[in-house]
Design a protein that fits this description.
- With 274 residues, this protein is an alpha/beta fold.
- It has one domain: Rossmann fold (3-Layer(aba) Sandwich).
- It is 30% helix and 26% strand.
- It is built from 8 helices and 12 strands.
- The chain has helices at 43-51, 68-71, 92-101, 115-130, 146-158, 176-193, 227-230, 233-240, and strands at 5-14, 17-27, 32-36, 58-63, 75-78, 164-168, 196-200, 213-218, 221-225, 245-248, 254-260, 268-270.
- The strands form 3 sheets. Strands 5-6-7-3-8-9 form a 6-stranded mixed β-sheet, with helices on both faces. It has a 3-stranded antiparallel β-sheet with strand order 2-1-4, with helices on one face.
- Helix 3 crosses helix 4, helix 3 (92-101) runs parallel beside helix 5 (146-158) and helix 4 packs across helix 5.
- The longest helix is centred in the C-terminal third of the chain and has 18 residues, at 176-193.
- The chain is globular.
- 37% of the residues are buried.
- Residues 103-108 and 262-272 have low confidence and may be disordered.
- The structure holds adenosine-5'-triphosphate (ATP) and magnesium ion (MG).
- Magnesium ion binds next to helix 1.
- Magnesium ion (MG) is lined by residues 43-44, 80, 168.
Length: 274
């Protein structure tokens, strides 16, 4: 079977500036993969390449055995930085439905009782149940908590039964219990439905127990492998071109120490795993 994502000698540039280069990776179907690295390292840029929104400046990218753009209908995508104003009156269920109808959403549905409308409504209900959002899906999305909104947005990305799910920082702004709950939910979708999941994260710890693989971008490079083979002092020191320490706490949390901010500045600081 073809890989879900494969990059060979790939490079990405934005606005004429290189972001990363020389990246080789192979993500198998059904894997749960985290994309890690400091701000500006090119994590979202990686998703743009996979979505075919940006062409590689060198090398080759293949997605589900196809050119990225051709594979687009088979991909579910949750973009970075989403928030709803508390005055937003659109219901959660409508936001999920948007993933099905795209541009047609918002129009009145005169054929609401047609077989295709019923099938669509059933599909929307199914994914809302899958993410555990049935209790609040009828409420205005702006009145829901960050964690509740996030579940509905994941449902939106799932409503077309994608083979590949790309989630750009879905745990952002969630408290720790909710980060764990959403990570467990995503892993369940990955395992039960065979969906390949690529999740961009800032802190690997809430998802560490669920992951098959990580891709780590820093210093204009990218490496991939099982989490504990990548989040290691020698691997990260090579990637950042600086001395990095990785400390594992007795509870199994990984703390990365000494990363230069954004890969370019010289002043070191301690930080919990980015
Ligand atoms: N549309 C654009 N035009 C020009 N430069 C861009 C554009 N989008 C991103 N960049 C630059 O490309 C680099 C990588 O950005 P990217 O958004 O991929 O980083 P990231 O790892 O996702 O960071 P963050 O953790 O902040 O989300 C950054 O230096 C950014 O300023
Ligand atoms: Mg980003």
């Amino acid at each position: 079977m073809t890989e879900a994502i494969s990059l060979s000698g790939a490079a990405a540039s934005r606005g004429g500036s290189p972001v990363w280069s020389g990246v080789d990776l192979a993500i198998a179907r059904g894997e749960f993969v985290a994309v890690l690295g400091p701000n500006g390292a090119g994590k979202s840029t990686f998703l743009d390449l996979v979505l075919g929104l940006l062409a590689p400046s060198a090398g080759a990218v293949s997605v589900l055995g196809q050119a990225p753009r051709a594979a687009r209908p088979r991909i579910g995508y949750l973009p970075q930085r989403r928030s709803f104003d508390t005055s937003t009156r659109v219901r959660g269920v409508d936001v999920v439905r948007l993933g099905l109808d795209g541009a047609r959403w918002g129009l009145p549905l005169p054929a609401a009782l047609s077989p295709s409308a019923r099938a669509a409504a059933a599909k929307v209900d199914e994914v809302i149940e899958l993410v555990g959002a049935s209790a609040y899906a009828e409420r205005a999305i702006g009145t829901l908590s960050g964690g509740e909104q996030q579940r509905l947005l994941i449902a939106q990305a799932l409503v077309r039964d994608p083979e590949l799910l790309l989630l750009d920082e879905p745990l952002d702004s969630l408290d720790l219990p909710n980060q764990s709950a959403v990570a467990a939910l995503v892993q369940r979708i990955c395992r039960e439905r065979g969906v390949t999941v690529v999740l961009v994260a800032h802190d690997v710890n809430p998802i560490l127990g669920y992951l098959d693989r990580v891709v780590y971008f820093a210093g204009g490079r990218g490496v991939e492998g099982p989490p504990r083979e990548v989040i290691r002092a020698d691997v990260l020191s090579r990637l950042y071109g600086a001395t990095i320490e990785v400390v594992e706490t007795p509870s199994g949390r990984l703390i990365v120490v000494g990363t230069p901010d954004a890969g370019h500045c010289t002043e070191d600081h301690e930080q919990v795993m980015v």
